[in-house]
Amino acid sequence: MPEKKVMLGDDELPRYWYNILPDLPAPLPPPLKPDGTPVKPEDLEPIFPKEIIRQEVSTERFIPIPDEVLEAYRIWRPTPLMRAYRLERALKTPAEIYFKFEGISPPGSHKPNTAVAQAYYNLREGVERLTTETGAGQWGSALAFATNLFGLKATIYMVRVSYEQKPYRRVLMQLWGAEVVPSPSTRTNFGRKVLEQDPDNPGSLGIAISEAIEDAVTHERTKYSLGSVLNHVLLHQTIIGLEAAKQLEELDRFPDYVVGCIGGGSNFAGIAYPFYYYKKAGKAPSDTQFIAVEPTAAPSTTKGVYTYDHGDTARLTPLLPMYTLGHDFVPPPIHAGGLRYHGKAPTLCLLIKHNEFKSVAYNQVEVFQAAELFARTEGFVPAPETAHAIKAVVDLALEARKAGERKVILFNFSGHGLLDLRAYDEYLSGVLKPYEYPREEVEKSIQRLFEMYPWLRNVRL
Ligand SMILES: *Cc1c(COP(=O)(O)O)cnc(C)c1O
């Protein structure tokens, strides 16, 4: 039997991240302020350190990874590339299925790839404390892990219902030394205002973002940190694809399909963008397809509108050019918490708009069925987010079987699901329901967006 895993040595860690900005099919439209004028990089200085802002707008193709960040990466990187032989056999497919195992990091997902870089740049510019928001705790635990490594403090505003009902990642954050505050809280003006009106408010990501940003801008040596969507975050995640390309090269393979789930878009961009570069630069076959997978419950790229919208419900972020369901989107209670987001990363949306990347949507029942098949064949329990990618991979492998084609499929195993067993419990007991977010709701939200910003109707993207 050929190899099951391809490992790289510590000294084979990539030394650069890949920045897709110079290679996009069209220039990326700039973020805008509510009056329709472009956001200037300086405008972001109260929130982010200068190096992060430089990377956000950089058009350099390769950006060196600092030694201190490489040293942190070495705790769990390079991650293995694995071949899913047992899944292939169960599907009776001639396709080869490979996955990049990001679930091996201490917090259990790809998220620390950017968290450690962000913590390091903040430390270097004299920042002493980082703030952020978290829903079920995936991003919060990644940032707590990273701030702990670099000796920074962290204040994490965690949506109150999750704080109360999903204690395990809260415990992880506290174990790594972060202060976890249930949001809405009495720490900020915004939180106090919300609590005055509704003392039992269960919280939302929008409220938690507002609190985290207010905390950062009203305190010295304190900055805010974001876990997806923005260019610098996607850039840091490209370590995944850069490693995977080296590993596949050892096997003399190049993927026909690169697949990943999309919440904000960072783990998929992380695995896909380097392969997009090799394809565009003529260093690889030109028929590779890139497939982004989202839930039918939050179908930004399959049912949303490509326009400018805020990245958050509280409208604190600039307006970003992206596929959106509208920033007032209320996420249905599905289990892939990390995929319940109304927008997607602007670079990814541009690639989808220009048909360079494809996107598909699946409901949570078919997604958990694929996850169960994966757990029973490969053993590893995928995060519910990751299971979306697996469902798409299963479909591609079955297509390859029908066509009798030996396709090479690569997907990103973005995280393990061992802290999501309650969701698996609901799946196994048959109470999970498929859910499709209605098109009319998208239209209503976008209507409200256009009423709020009438100039948007004249913006051509
Ligand atoms: C957060 C998360 C995601 C979704 O976020 P992206 O920015 O789209 O990658 C996917 N998988 C896991 C395991 C996550 O924790």
Structural overview:
It contains 18 helices and 15 strands. With 461 residues, the chain is an alpha/beta fold. The protein has 2 domains: 5-12 and 78-108 and 232-456, Rossmann fold, CATH 3.40.50.1100; 33-61 and 110-230, Rossmann fold. The model has no long low-confidence stretch (mean pLDDT 96). Residues 109, 111, 138, 228, 261-267, 338-339, 383, 385-386, 414-415 line the site of pyridoxal-5'-phosphate. Pyridoxal-5'-phosphate is lined by residues 109, 111, 138, 228, 261-267, 338-339, 383, 385-386, 414-415.
| CATH topology assignment of the largest domain | Rossmann fold
Whole-number radius of gyration? 21 Å
Instruction: Report strand order across the widest sheet.
Output: 1-4-5-15-10-11-14
Low-confidence stretches: none
Q: Compute the number of strand runs.
A: 15
Give the N-terminus to C-terminus distance in angstroms: 51 Å
Specify the overall morphology: globular
Q: Provide the residue-averaged pLDDT.
A: 96
**Strand content of the residues, in percent?**
15-25%
Sheet bearing the most strands, described?
7 strands, mixed
Helical proportion?
40-55%
Bound molecules: pyridoxal-5'-phosphate
Subunit organisation of the chains = single chain
CATH architecture of the largest domain: 3-Layer(aba) Sandwich
How many separate structural domains? 2
Number of helices: 18
CATH class of the largest domain: Alpha Beta
The assigned structural class equals alpha/beta
